[in-house]
Structure formats: C-alpha cells, structure tokens
Write a structure and sequence with these properties.
This is LysR family glycine cleavage system transcriptional activator. Keywords: DNA-binding, Transcription, Transcription regulation. This protein has about 290 residues and is an alpha/beta fold. The chain folds into three domains: about 80 residues, Orthogonal Bundle (Arc Repressor Mutant, subunit A), CATH 1.10.10.10; about 90 residues, D-Maltodextrin-Binding Protein, domain 2 (3-Layer(aba) Sandwich); about 100 residues, 3-Layer(aba) Sandwich (D-Maltodextrin-Binding Protein, domain 2), CATH 3.40.190.10. Helix content is about 45%, strand content about 20%. It has ten helices and twelve strands. Strands 4-3-5-12-6 form a five-stranded mixed β-sheet, with helices on one face. A five-stranded mixed β-sheet has the order 9-8-10-7-11, with helices on both faces. α7 links the parallel β8 and β9. The radius of gyration is 23 Å and the shape is elongated. It starts with 5 loop residues before the first helix and ends with a helix.
C-alpha cells in the first residue's frame, strides 16, 4: 500500500478544514511556513494542486475539497480506533463543560449510549458558565457552548434557531395568536435577557418596546414555566423536539430567529484518547449516525 507522508496528510487535513495555513499551524503547534511546505510536498506527491493560492490567503479547489473530506474521514477513523484501544488499556477520564439545558434536554438522554460503548471512560460534566472558548484556554477537555461561532475550529453540534412556543393550556386560555404582532401584548417569558425577543420581533419586521416579563437564568427554568402555562417563550428548536412530538409545547408561527447562533463543540489542544472518543461520539450523535 503506497501512501503519502503522514505528516503531509495531517498538515493538509488541518489546512483544508480551517482553510488557512496560519490557523492550521496554530492547531498543530508549528509554523505556517511548515504547513505550506507539507502541503506543497503532498501536492507534488499527487501531481496536482489542492489549493488556489492568493495574496490574501488560500482556498481549496474542487479536487482539494473532495480529497480533504476523504482525508479527514480517514484520519478520524484512525484516531478513533487508536483512542479506543488506548482508553481500553486503562481507566481514563474526560471532562466536558456544558450548559445545563443541553445536558437536560439533549446530552443526558444520550449518555447511556456512550457508557455502553466505552464503559472504561469516566465522564465528568461541569458547568460551561464563564468558560473560555479558545482551544488553548478552556479548562475542560471539551466545551459545548452557545452563541455565534467562537472561532474557526469550533464544530457545530446543534442549531441555535429559536421559535415562539407555548403550552396548549396557555394557548387555549390566552390565544389564538394569528400574527407575530399579536405577541407584542402577550405574556412573554425571557431567557437571560429581553434581547432574544427583541431580535425575534425585529426579524418579523416589528419594532417597538418588548413587553416586560419574568427573566430566567437558564432555559430549563424557562421551559418549566412554559409547561406550567405561564406564557410564551422563545425556545431552541433542537432542545424541545420531544416536547413538540408529545404535544407538551406548540409552535406559534413558522418564524425563527437566532439563525446565526448554534451550540458549538470546542476542544482543547492535545486531546487525551478518552476525550477523542467523546468528541467523535458527540459529532456522530449530532449527525444522527
């Protein structure tokens, strides 16, 4: 089996995924010049270019994009297999910093599956509040955070889209709500600040003062109040799929906001074998594999 040099493949995979020699160098702990040399060596080995080089940076060409996806998949399989063998040889721990709402409504129900696959791995989950989002700064092995993309290396796990939702009991008592403007005078529940509702009304083409209402420090608290019929709240669709399926909550309109936000997976540099297993498992779960 004739293969390209592994160092060249690693450098190319990082550069292709991040579309930047400089960011790939930061991830690999080397220099942009070294990454460029490795990529050039791989292109020479293949006999064709993989990047279009411009004064302001590099861009994958068509062949490079296809080859990059295949190399990333192949290296990922190697990393997962190696991590499984290494973790099985001793009891290992992985720490994951995560928002409580994500643990409650998405991660928690899936964790038994991880434990069944990797019983030798001890998982420690901590609060994500006040965690840094740069790979070199996070205290946990892995971080699940919410917001706009924190940096190019972050991986999207769940959509952050929010839509207006309420319980059937509340809608029967206070509804119907035919148009988004009807909610300007409704009992609104707020998650952390009133900014979420302000953005939602603005994307619906509505301006004005957002009606005051209870502000909850966490979505799990907000959800409990929605289920109790206390008002209308903006809910991350990814976290209420079961509530919608079982009829505990209903969406009011086919209009969402926060489309630029998501739940992101950030990993620290030099992951342990156990952390590599959990990272890859989280990605598979998010993709529904």
């Amino acid at each position: 089996m004739k293969l390209p040099p592994l160092t060249a493949l690693r450098a190319f995979e990082a550069a292709a995924r991040l579309e930047s020699f400089a960011r790939a160098a930061d991830e690999l702990g080397t220099t942009a010049a070294a990454v460029s040399q490795h990529v050039r060596a791989l292109e020479d080995w293949l006999g064709q270019p993989l990047f279009e080089r411009r004064p302001r940076g590099v861009t994958l060409n068509g062949d490079g994009r296809t080859f990059g996806a295949e190399v990333s998949s192949g290296l990922g399989l190697i990393a997962t297999a190696a991590a499984r063998l290494k973790a099985a040889s001793k009891h290992e721990t992985v720490t994951l910093a995560c928002l409580p709402s994500v643990v409650t409504h998405w991660l928690g129900p899936r964790l038994p599956g991880f434990r069944q696959l990797y019983p030798e791995v001890q998982v420690t989950i901590s609060y994500a509040a006040a965690q840094a989002v740069r790979a070199q700064d996070i205290q946990a092995d892995l971080l699940l955070c919410h917001g706009v993309k924190p940096h190019p290396g972050a991986r999207k796990i769940l959509s952050g889209e929010t839509q207006a939702a309420a319980s059937p009991a509340f809608l029967a008592l206070k509804g119907p709500f035919q148009h988004p403007a009807d909610l300007l005078q409704a009992d609104l529940l707020h998650d952390e600040t009133v900014d979420g509702w302000r953005r939602w009304f603005e994307t619906a083409g509505l301006r004005g003062t957002v009606k005051p209402g209870p502000i909850f420090a966490d979505f799990t608290l907000l959800r409990s109040s929605l289920l109790a019929g206390l008002g209308v709240g903006l809910c991350p669709i990814a976290l209420i799929e079961e509530d919608l399926a079982e009829g505990r909550l209903q969406l009011l309109f086919d209009h969402g906001s926060d489309l630029d936000r998501a739940y992101w997976l950030v990993e620290r540099q030099l992951l342990s074998p156990a952390a590599t297993l959990m990272r890859d498992w989280l990605i598979r779960e998010a993709e529904g594999l």
